[in-house]
Amino acid sequence: MERHELGVPGAWVLEPRQFRDPRGTFLEWFTDEDFQAALGHRFDLRQANLSVSAAGVVRGVHFADVPPGQAKYVTCMAGAVLDVAVDIRVGSPTFGQWDTVLLDDVDRRAVYLAEGLGHAFMSLGDGATVAYLCSTGYAPEREHGVNPLDPDLGIVWPTADRAGNPVAPLLSAKDEAAPSLAEARAAGLLPTWEVCAPYAGR
Hints:
13 strands, 13% helix
C-alpha cells in the first residue's frame, strides 16, 4: 500500500493495490498489517459508517472532543467525493489550513485522519457512497462542527459534479448552523495542538 501525508499533519492518503481481470476488480481497502506498516500504529476500529449522498451534498466539517477524539479511515465505494482534511487544532503550525484529495471508485484511495482533525467532503455525483472506519463510537455530546462555507476558512468547493453538471453545496440544517472556525475557537470547542500532536505524529 502506497501512502503520503497531506499538507495537514496527521492526514494521510493510502493507495491500495488493485487486481483487475475480465471479471472485475479486487482490492483490500483496509488491512491491519498494511496500515501499521504505512503509519506505524494500529487502527482501533470501534464503528463503521456508510453514507450515500446526492450530487453537491457537503458533509462536515465534523470533529470530536480530544480525548478520546475520533480517528477516521475513509474511502469512496461508489462515485466520487472531494474529501477535505481541516486543521482545527489550536496552536498547530498549520491551524486553519486544509487539504483535499479525490476519493473515487477508480483509484480507490483512502484517507486516514488522526484524532483532532476536522473532516468534510462534497459528493461529485448522485449516489456517492462513502465508508468510514472510526476509532470511537458516535457520542453526540462529544461531536462538533465548523461551517464548511466559512469564508475565513475558505475551502474551495467544486462548482461542477463528476459529469460536468453545475452543483452548489447542499448542507444539512445542523452543518448550516455550525459556527465559523473563529466562533468555535472563541467558544472553546476546538482541540489543542498540545493534546493532539501525539496522535498526529505517532
